[in-house]
Every structure is written in C-alpha cells, then in structure tokens.
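Figure 2 data, in text form.
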Amino acid sequence: MPLSLKGMRRTDFGKTGDAGREGKSNGSRSTDRLVHVAAVALAAVLALSGLLLVIPAAADSPASLQEVGHDDLGARGLNSALALAGHCAYIGSRGQGAIEIVDVTDPAHLRTVGSLPARRLTTPRELRTVLSRKLLVVLSYALGSGGLNRLDLYSWQGDCAQPVLVGGYDFAVRSPHEFYLWQQSDGDRLLLFTTMFSGGGADLQVVDATDPASPKLAGTWSPPLGSLHSIALSGDGRRAYLSLWRGGLLIADSTQFVSGQPNPQLSLLTPASSALAPLPGGNVHSAVQLPGRDLVIVTDERYLPTAPCGPARLVDVSNPAQPRQVSVLKAPENESATCPSSPVGTYTSHNPTVVGDLAFVTWYSSGLQVFDVSNPAQPVRLAESRPQAVEPGGRDSQLGATLTMTWSYPIVRDGLIYVADINQGLYVLRYQGPHQEQVAQIGFAEGNSNLQPAQAAPTPTPSAVPPPTSPTTPTSGVTRVSPSPAAARLLPTSNWWAGAILILLAAGAAAAFVLVRRSRRPG
C-alpha cells in the first residue's frame, strides 16, 4: 500500500537517513574509490592524448628528397634543359652536345635509348614537349660564328624515342635565349614566347607554332627598360610576367597575342617607374606565378666573379601596378655570413616550379631546394638534394668547381620530381614531408609552360608506400636534410586544436572530480 507521510516527524526522517548511511557506508567507500580511479584515469588519458597531438614525437621524420633513379648520361657534363613526354626524357646541352633521350618507363632504372645529333657551334639550350601533339620544341643558339639561332620542332608517330624534324623558325643572326610555351586550353593555338635577352628592340619575339611544319612570327615587343631575360604567362595567357634582368619585374596584359589580334603588343600594367627592382648586386632572372594565387616567385641568377649567392623572392602581384616583395627564400649559402666561406661555386636560385604550397627551385651549387610557401610572409625551407655522383667530362668554368650544379626547371609528374643537373645528368626524386599529398595528386607541372592539366596521378594517396622498385632511402649521391626545427615539426593546425581541446577536457574532468569530492565531505 502507498506509504503515508502523515504523522511522521522531522526527526524520523533524520533517523531513517542515518540508518541508510550506516548500512551503506562500506559500499559507498568502494564506489568512491572507483569514481576516484576512473576520474584520474580519464584525466590522464585526455591530457596524454592532447600532448601527443600538440608536441611532435621525437620520431617524426623531417621533409626529404629521396633518389628514385639516376642517369649520368655518360658523365658528359654540360647538360641543360629537360623535357618529358610519355616514357621519354629529353636533355639538352650547354655545349655542342647532342640531345639525349632517356627511357623513364621505370623511374628507378633509367636508361639512355637514343639522341638527336649535335650541331656544330650550336647549343640546344631550351626544350619543351606537348604530349597531346606528340611534339618536341628545341631552342638553339650559336656559340660562335657558324652556329645556328633557331627553334626546331620534332614530332613522332609511334615511339617518342624516335622524333623526326618537321619544322623550324630561324632567327638569323640574333640569338634567342629562353622561351615560354603557351597552349590554348580550348583550342589549337600554340605560341612560343621567345626572349632575345639583348637589350635591343624586339627583345620579345612570339612564334606561332600552331602548325609545327610552318611556324611563323606572330609579333614582337620592345621593353621600356632593361634586357628581357625571361617571360612567363598566366594559365589563360592574358597576364605576362617580364623579367628584365637589371631592369626588374614588370607585369603586362598579353591578351592581344593569345587572342590572335593583328600586330599584337603587350600592354604594361606596371609603370616602368614602379618596376620591382633587383636585390642589391642581383637581377631578376625569372618570375613564375603560384597557381591560383596573386603571387609570383622571382629568382636571382648570379655568376662569378661577383658574389654568386642569389636568393629568391615571393612577390605580391594583386596590384599589378605596384608589385611588392613579401619575403625572401634562401639556401644555406645565401646567408651573408656563409656565402664568402663556401667552396667556389654558384649558389644562386635559377628555375622554379610550384605545386600547391610547395616551390621546387633549382639552385645551381645548392642543388634542388624545396620551400613551403603556404604562408608567403614566412616561407619555410623544407629539404634539398645535392647530387654529386660523378666527375663530369665537361665543365663550365664560369660556374665554379662544385660537383652539384642543378639547373633545369623541375618537372613534377605522377608524384615524382624530374630534374637535370649540369654535371650529374638526370635525376628522379621523391618528396616526402608537409603537403606531399599535393605532389601525389598532380599529373604534370613545369614552370616554363602552361601545360598543367588538372588531373590526378594514378595513385593520389597522401601516404602511399613507394613501389618496390624505388629505393626508400637516398643513395650517397643525394643529400637529405632537415634544415630547421621549424620545418621538421610542421604539423596540421587541426592537430593543435584537437590537442588543446583534449587538454581542456582533462582539466575539466579533474575539476569535476575535485568538486564531487568536496560535495561528499561532511558539514
């Protein structure tokens, strides 16, 4: 029957409660102990989990470049530019050497399979390929009287190792220096923006190679100052970045060229008086846009006998009328205290290729340098590779005596980095470290063309294990470094937030336990 409270006194409640506590005292103590242990354990686990996320483990690996494959090209030396198409790599010559053709079907086992014959007193200096057209473009210039100044176009039907000359453009007595290959994304227009680097009129000559058998001059342009060393374009071809050596960096509208207008001209967006000036003692060698960002990376090529220690820079071009330096990128020898005591060499930035938040920059005697540019105001040097496997047969005396002399634009393809060294030949490297998933996801990228299709590599998993044919540790010819504690401890920001939250939860658990204990104390 229902319990009736009527007639019960306050003291009766007290007695009943006392009796209950008396009968359950032993069980309560056991429960208290269990609560105590559970609370302490929870707090410890949460705190430990937070610390593990916030504090990097001692075993964390630094960023690295690992050698996958190498072909020293017979230790010939004097190698120049690199181009890739299908299973073929093409490597030019700074001397009168042939264009070597290397089979890269298995990147861990490279082998030379052919060559394009050398021409007397002529250097095949710059190379590009257009895989969709089965086309190889070679820029050559004379090393002396009797040499040739021209663009040659080769094609193949079946095997890329057997290209055949199909057309060319002759610059006569003027020597071309570099060119940027631009292909129309929604059409067949193919333009070769060629710089003469002479300081004279028509320092830019744009060759229309839409018909490789009959390339023709589309137009010329004369810079208002300096000598036009290099040009790079935005992906759509409407923005041009002009590296004018001592004249600095200018930005121009190049729409008239890419749209095929008659008598096309560049329209300067940067007044000549507002050009981004070279660093003291330096120059502006090249300027390549960071994909999808209003930033360019500017390199500074310095040769002996001047101090050959040229850094690179990140430049904000969101206001093209006033390009603004944001930060400086340096190899170790670019520090003022280090450069004078370095072995005789050329420790200067040269050619950049940018993939996502990573800039891969060839740096002559400092090898291939890798930077995290996710925060342009504070770039971080992550890793480097300094190949020095062989003594080359031919050397460029102007560059100094270091065995490492990495020069070409890096090419990123299917998660691997291909690069040519003047002394050491062709290398295939694998990057591991922060943002490595961005490298794995890119099908193709190079800094001297707009041929960067938005396609994923065959295996775009960030933590993919290297294939068995590729060594997981570098050979003695490649140096791996952890340049700074900051680079070695780069972790995603989300880890810090997660760690902080877990530590706060641990503190809350401990505080709750203390409050519960206090509430159980008598009076």
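Caption note: The mean pLDDT is 84.
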